[in-house]
Amino acid sequence: MEEEASGKQKEFESEALVHLDTLYNVALRLTGNASDAEDLVQDTVTKAYRAWDKYEPGTNCRAWLVTIMRNTFINQFRRRSKQPSPVQFDAVEDTSVFEQVQDRDPEGSFYRFIVDDEVKQAIQELPEEFRIPVVLSDVEGLSYAEIAEILDLPVGTVKSRLFRGRRRLQQRLYEYAMEMGYIR
Amino acid sequence: MTGFIRDLMEKMMPQPGGIDCGGVMAQLYEYLDGELDDPATMEKIRVHLEKCRRCYPRYNFEKAFLRFVSDQGHTSAPPELRRKIFQTLLEEEDSH
Fold first, then answer.
1. In the prediction, which pLDDT does B10 show?
2. Of A44, A157, B40, B55, which alpha carbon lies 20 to 30 A from A36's?
3. Contact present, A117 and B52 (Cβ < 8 Å)
4. What is the pLDDT of residue A85?
């Protein structure tokens, strides 16, 4: 019996725990702080471990784990904070930053001066419905189909949220670069 | 007015890759994200971007942005959390 358990643990380590960084990243962007993020990762991993026999080996373990995390977040953590309100279309999404910088910095060199904390802050300030697709796609490299599955949304909605989220993020980083004088 | 002239010129110019600028821009993120299923469309966009002086800089800018977010947006799990998780798993095993 003990051997079986140890086999399960080894399997879990090699298949699931390799995605710990992804889980932490997503948790951080969902909760907005390190302490809640750690709790969310712990709860997610514990649930996943208990449900490990329901996981089909060879299928997408990372998407399975992030789905458990999302559901855990909705059930436990969201209760503590306000429900996000639906996001209205913002005029910011109408124009791309490229239009604004094409004469001064068409290659987007100003990005190089922006430090990672500022980027993470800018991602955090995105409304949740854009923030999570952006993190899953642009930071974690998940496909549209994987994100659609995790967030239980049609692929078309994922695409449009990514588009809008990226536009807002670009605009925020551009404004920051302007404030800091990285771009004139 | 500039926009009008640009549009007019675009209509008069040959379309590199057999796809117009609007078509390329509409699918730019999907192209960059490797999400286009049709190899023929991917090739059209690739050829277009190679030859179009208007679209290439936009493509290049978006590519720089995505690379930047991917490089800078990541945070690694703290070692202490990793340790706690291994501890939790051991406790889970003991309780069964």
1. 61
2. A157
3. no
4. 64
Six token digits for residue B95:
């309780």
Structure tokens at A151: 């967030």
Q: Which two tokens stand for residue A126?
A: 């995105």
B93 and chain A in contact, CB less than 8 A: yes
Given the cut 0.90, state whether the ipTM is greater than it: no
Chain centroid, CA A150 distance in Å = 11
Q: Which residues of A129-163 are buried (b: 16+ CB within 10 A; e: fewer)?
A: bbbbbbbbbbbbebbbebbbbbbebeeebbbebbb
Q: Which residues of A touch B75 (CB under 8 A)?
A: 21, 24-25, 28, 120
pTM, 2 dp: 0.87
Interatomic CA distance for residues A49 and A32, integer angstroms? 25
CA distance B48 to chain A (A): 19
The answer to whether B61 touches B91, Cβ cutoff 8 Å, is: no
Compute the C-alpha angle A117/A80/B76, nearest 5°: 30
Q: In this complex, is the C-beta atom of A47 within 8 Å of any C-beta atom belonging to chain B?
A: no
Structural tokens at position A182: 């990285």
CA A129/CA A144 separation, integer angstroms: 14
Q: What is the structure's pLDDT at B19?
A: 93
